[in-house]
Design brief:
about 800 residues; alpha/beta; ten-stranded mixed β-sheet; four-stranded mixed β-sheet; 25 helices; 22 strands; about 30% helix; iron; 4Fe-4S
Length: about 800
């Protein structure tokens, strides 16, 4: 199908910077010695990354480096530098053009901390799985060190961390709204999303002698400005929000209202002076421009949204409406006396361009400097292949929406087959099994909108929610043909599908489900219902369980016909915004009835800029028009409550019995306590009662004049301190925590993500291990410990 959203210029249409280049580097150099061996006296571009350098198309810096190399630029890589000084940032010398900075395939904060904000001690993107090799907020730290190393050299930031922080955003770790990372990092420019196209344009223009301050209107970039770009028309964000669903544009040439709140250099209340009417000769009518061309949306200022949750939710809603490259407008948001200017997203890559990117001469192994050290992220994806980018699902917890966008960008079948053959023939340790042919979603390969006009102008956040759009192509034949051709290759024993399958799409084409069950499942298949209850599902923009049951029926049928015992492994998110205690209880009962015992359970992780994170922070439903009377969304944030939701998903773990029993008693569901098949948890044992009594006696003995009495036992003038000065206050804090938890359960649920198996999943929940993106990294959320190949 011919693409309807196309760039003006091809990705590889530029003349090479060095026409007589010295050739392709076996690995992009990481030291002066490697540069000398290549005959380089300097690097044109130096890339700084928080990941180990693996020369593989699943790692963002490898993609970026090889794309620039194909354009004739000399590219060096500084991997996981010591950020405590500028020394490591100087080891390749001064770059001729710029530093390119990324935190890596993952957001550095998600990489370093669990969803409960506990410190991690591992890092899948580091040799030896060692944690702590990159700083918190790595984009900011690395950028500042680059400035110190060589003053005056431009610094450009990109990757998942920069991409998800390009605007004022709620920061889960500091629990406040932070400025755009462009201000904190003091970088000259920010790339967001898949960055090959803006990267190539910026690099060639800098090489041609242009100043980076003059590169202002390049798609897929964000810059800092004093005022709006000249000749751009402003529209106030409040004039664009529509109640309910986003209305289609009635005419592709209808102009938007002019921004009433535009800042003007001069204001006057005087009536305009009369002016003579000038009669001009008739001219040929100019072609009408489209309403989004050279139009920017003025968003509420950072100083406003950091304190006003309603306007924060409104801003988030507007941002997510402006993500279609075909019709997106620029965004401008004031920060103090300056503004962040975000150009429309870059145009997606054509199939030929995708093929060219993946056909570059990757070594497909880590840089030799790491020796025999294991890099878990590489081990996970070395036999897997990325066949597409993007996802039109629009799940509110998933950062693909904000990073890769809705447009599906697919490789050709020939290109994918070539990569399989290359793995078979060159990658050490290959045993004949391809671990995945996938992407953010396994079965969206070559699916696109069937209406060119709709694809170019649609602003819906999802093509499949609340139902599959009538314009959406659901024909899985290209995917089926690819699977069949791939498994027929000599030397290929098995082609597995480890990426998540969108089952509501799969049931539209039962032949795909049959192909999957018969040939591409290794006993277990991961799918993601996310929840069983309508409340949280409506805030996730996920389908109801009806689609799951239809898919399961087909999957079981074809598995049985093939004589195979195969099982579905469902993923669930607990405590997502909109989830109540009753919702979690219903999910726990469903799990028990269906004999699921989840092994890996995580809290919902609010990643920057995701719609679900907006609901978590504001407790406002930003999927609808945002007003002061907007629907309230319960979001539990207390540690005790989050632990309960996690416990409910592991109802079978004896460690959780006591906590679940207490919750069931509060909810009036003591009928679920017992030893029968209809019960969720068993009653207290004699041993548990004895231990509880012993704890109670220890507590009574603790109430002495030596330890201090609780505040309720002290005199009117007491300051609440015992002899140690701390005991009473500590008791008060615990009491307050219990009060907070014992309030209305529906006001407190939120935050847990469950993952049954440790395979690759798409970049979920705004924080998911994922495949590196050109100029971008990946975000881990659904299975934080397991890197995924799919979100670059």
């Amino acid at each position: 199908m011919q693409a309807t959203i196309k760039a003006d210029r091809g990705l590889f249409s530029y003349p090479k910077y060095w026409p007589h280049c010295l050739g392709t580097a076996p690995f992009l150099p990481m030291s002066k010695e490697e540069m000398d061996a290549l005959g380089w006296d300097s690097c044109d571009v130096i890339l700084v990354t928080g990941d180990a350098y693996v020369d593989h198309p699943s790692f963002g810096m490898a993609v970026i480096g090889r794309v620039l190399e194909a354009h004739g630029f000399r590219v060096g890589i500084i991997s996981q530098p010591d950020w405590t000084s500028k020394d490591d940032f100087m080891k390749l010398g001064k770059p001729n053009l710029y530093f390119g900075v990324t935190a890596g395939n993952m957001d550095s904060m998600i990489n370093r901390y669990t969803s409960d904000k506990k410190l991690r001690h591992d890092d899948a993107y580091t040799p030896g799985n060692v944690g702590g090799k990159r700083p918190d907020r790595a984009v900011t730290v690395y950028s500042q060190r680059c400035r110190e190393a060589f003053k005056g050299v431009p610094v450009i930031v990109g990757g998942i961390e920069a991409s998800l922080r390009r605007i004022a955003h709620y920061d889960y770790w500091s629990e406040k709204v932070r400025r755009s990372v462009l201000f904190d990092s003091k970088a000259d420019m920010l790339f967001f999303g898949n960055a090959e196209r803006p990267l190539v344009e910026v690099t060639h223009r800098l090489a041609a002698g242009e100043d980076i301050a003059d590169l202002r209107d390049i798609r897929g970039t964000a810059i800092i400005v004093k005022e709006a770009l000249p000749e751009w028309q402003g529209v106030d964000s409040t004039s664009l929000d529509r109640p309910g669903k986003i209305d289609p544009i009635s005419s592709p040439y209808q102009m938007e209202p002019e921004c009433d709140s535009q800042e003007k250099d001069t204001k006057s209340s005087e009536a305009p002076e009369a002016a003579p009417i000038v009669i001009q000769p008739a001219q040929k009518e100019k072609e009408k421009r489209k309403p989004w061309e050279n139009v920017y949306v003025k968003l509420p200022a950072y100083e406003t949204v950091k304190d006003n949750k309603v306007l924060y939710a409104h801003t988030s809603r507007i941002l997510h409406q402006e993500t279609n490259p075909g019709c997106a407008r620029a965004l401008m948001q004031r920060h103090g006396d300056r503004h962040i200017w975000i150009n429309p997203p870059a145009m997606p890559l054509e199939t030929e361009e995708m093929d060219a990117v993946f056909d570059l001469p990757y070594q497909r192994v880590p840089h030799p400097v790491y020796g025999d050290a294991k890099i878990p992220a590489y081990d996970m994806i070395r036999f897997s292949i990325n066949i597409m980018r993007g996802c039109y699902g629009g799940c509110t917890f998933c950062s693909i929406t904000e990073h890769e966008g809705r447009i599906i960008q697919s490789r050709s079948e020939d290109s994918i087959i070539r990569e399989i053959e290359q793995i078979r023939d060159t990658v050490p340790g290959f045993t004949g099994v391809i671990s995945d042919l996938g992407g953010p979603t396994a079965n969206m390969y070559r699916l696109r909108c069937k209406s060119p006009k709709a694809e170019a102008t649609c602003r819906r956040p999802s093509c499949v929610y609340p139902s599959i759009c009538a314009h959406m192509d659901t024909d899985h034949k290209p995917t089926i043909d690819l699977y069949r051709r791939a498994r027929e290759l000599p030397g290929i024993k098995k082609i597995l599908i480890a990426s998540g399958v969108r089952y509501d799409l799969a049931v539209e084409d039962p032949e795909y489900v049959k192909e999957l069950a018969l040939h591409h499942v290794g006993g277990y298949l991961k799918i993601a219902p996310e929840h069983t209850e309508d409340g949280p599902l409506s805030k996730m923009m996920k389908p109801g369980m009806g689609s799951y049951y239809r898919f399961k029926e087909l999957f079981d049928k074809y598995s049985q016909e093939a004589g195979k015992k195969q099982y579905l492994i469902p993923y669930f998110i607990a405590s997502h915004p909109g989830t109540t205690d009753e919702d979690m209880l219903s999910l726990a009962i469903w799990l028990k009835e269906n004999k699921f015992k989840l092994d890996q359970v995580q809290n919902f992780y609010p990643s920057p800029m995701a719609t679900a994170t907006t609901m978590y922070h504001t407790e406002v439903n930003s999927l609808r028009k945002v007003t002061k009377e907007s629907e309230e969304v319960p979001s539990a944030k207390g540690e005790i409550h989050r632990r309960l939701h996690k416990a409910m998903l592991r109802y079978h773990d004896p460690k959780n019995f006591a906590q679940i029993r207490e919750a069931l008693k509060r909810m009036g569901r003591e009928d679920l306590i017992g030893r029968g098949p209809q019960h969720l948890v068993p009653p207290e044992t004699a041993d548990e009662k004895r231990q509880k009594a012993q704890k109670g006696r220890r507590g009574e003995r603790a109430l002495t004049k030596h330890t201090g009495l609780p505040p309720t036992f002290q005199g009117k003038n007491s300051k609440g301190k015992g002899r140690d000065g701390n005991t009473a206050n500590k008791g008060r804090r615990n009491s307050d925590a219990n009060k907070q938890y014992q309030g209305n359960p529906q006001e407190q649920s939120n935050g847990n993500s469950v993952n049954k198996s440790g395979g690759k999943t798409g970049n979920r929940n705004g924080a998911n291990t994922s495949k590196a993106n050109n100029g971008s990294g990946n975000n881990r959320n659904r299975s934080q410990k397991q890197p995924s190949m799919h979100k670059r």
